[in-house]
Amino acid sequence: MLSARVAVRTVLEETRQFSVVAEGAPGTVANIVRWSRPDVLVISHAAESEALHTLLRCPGRPGRPFCVVLAEQLTGHGTRQLLRQGAAGVLLRGTAARHLPWAVTAVAQGSLALDPCLTEALKAAYVRPAAVDRERAPAEALVSTLTPRERDVLALVGDGLPNREIADALSLSPDTVKDHLRRIYTKLGVETRLHAARIAWCAGGGTAERPDRQVPEPT
Questions:
Q1: What is the pLDDT along the chain (219 residues), one digit of tens a residue?
Q2: Quick one: which of 165, 215, 214 has its CA closest to 192?
Q3: For 206, which of 34, 174, 179, 200 could close a Cys bridge (C-beta 3.0–4.6 Å)?
Q4: From CA 192, how far away is CA 47, in angstroms rounded?
Q5: CA 106 to chain centre
Q6: How far apart are CA 202 and CA 132, in angstroms?
Q7: First-to-last C-alpha distance (Å) of the chain
Q8: Among 170, 174, 176, 184, which Cα is nearest to 218's?
């Protein structure tokens, strides 16, 4: 544990952006927080369960610092538990030297800091499946009202292509693409390109697995 604390201190002090005001064993965390009043508390453990136990010892608000948790391994369940109990940052201990400085800065400013290994899993769990599954049937019903050519245009909108590239892909003029889009918007009952793309994703057209894909405005 001593080597882990030294490693954290070294990483933070080498940036010359932070002052380490105190350090200690997990069992002393409550006392450390009360007398040193840090802005950010870094909790480092081998197991998520140990980190959670230490997090629960931290005094409640007011006066509770933002907490960044480091653990040797991270799981979806363990990360959710840590976040529910107030962790503002969760990082792998093995790569903390690379990520800890920006994570401490982020949580001190009120943001959430997650190890890059967690972002895809969280995106898959909270952004993609549930919302898309709920909207699939209504989206498919809307898309069924389109002509085959309008469906081709909508699928390419879902893939993030601008009008000029859609025109090239379908051997149409840009003005014809715009005419198709006006009719598509009317039939789908939408006003924006992003809303049309969302329907394409949910119906299974375009890049259905990537609703975070950027959708350019017409050019």
A1: 447 778 888 888 888 888 888 888 877 788 888 888 888 999 988 888 998 988 888 877 667 888 999 999 888 788 888 888 889 899 999 888 889 999 998 888 888 888 888 876 655 554 555 555 677 888 899 999 999 999 999 999 887 777 888 999 999 998 999 999 999 999 999 887 878 888 888 887 544 333 334 444 444
A2: 215
A3: 200
A4: 47
A5: 14
A6: 5
A7: 58
A8: 174
**Which pair of structure tokens corresponds to residue 195?**
């809303």
CA distance 21 to 12: 11
- The token pair that represents 187 in the structure block: 């039939």
DSSP letter for each residue of the chain: -HHHHHHHHHHHHHTTS--------GGGHHHHHHHH--SEEEEEESSHHHHHHHHHHSPPSSSPPEEEEEESS--HHHHHHHHHTTEEEEEEGGGHHHHHHHHHHHHHTT--EE-HHHHHHHHHHHTSHHHHHHHHHHHHHHHTTS-HHHHHHHHHHHTT--HHHHHHHHT--HHHHHHHHHHHHHHHT--SHHHHHHHHHHHT-SSTT-TTS--PPP-
Looking up tokens 């409640």 gives: 60
